[in-house]
Amino acid sequence: MSVSYDEDDYYVGLDGGMQWRSFFANWDFIYQWGDIDFDENVVEKGTDDSLDRSAYFIHTDLGYHWTPKFTTTFTFWYASGDDDPDDGDADNYDNIDTDVPGDVVIFEEQVTDDNSWTDAPYLLDKGFIMFRLKANYQVTKKWSIAPAVAYMLLAEDTYNGDDDVGWEMMLFSKYNIWKNLNFNFAAGYLVAGDAMDAWARDANISNDYDGDADDQWRVTAGIRFKF
Hints:
- This protein has 227 residues and is mostly beta strands.
- It has strands spanning 5-20, 23-38, 50-67, 70-79, 89-90, 128-138, 143-153, 164-178, 181-192, 216-225.
């Protein structure tokens, strides 16, 4: 069903960072508000044809430089989600179109952004929560590798009552062929949680989903020239 609407969104944010000896931190906070006016009433149990937006996004990095060649970084982000589509409120964060690095399988931290689930820090209107630990190691002057592990879940449950997206193991690598020319590699394996069953389409008579999502993996490689 196609629905026409007008949407007014406003954002206010705060970001910053600090470094003390070998420790560093970065943080971002964005609050979003506004309203969505529909041409017809689409809020089933509502009394009008509009939604009030109130949502937020939080991100932080905490890292440590163990040696000039080895750094570890812990990343956390929280994008609010909407828990009730019929209450007249839109509590899910809706970002301005931007690339969001986070993992290989679901988001766009990879060599290319084709076939990614989303270019936003959330899935549908359910928000997103991520805990990720990444280690960067400069093997040689030209070659670096970065293994990472992340646990991900939704801020609000899917229709099947689950929020567990799953665990993902990742490996990134970059080799500098010559100035401004790099070979990039990224791989990720997602051990799918129960929330991913909401996207497991199959021949189930009741809702067209089989309720048993498979694990997912992705490998990408490419050569990138910066100018």
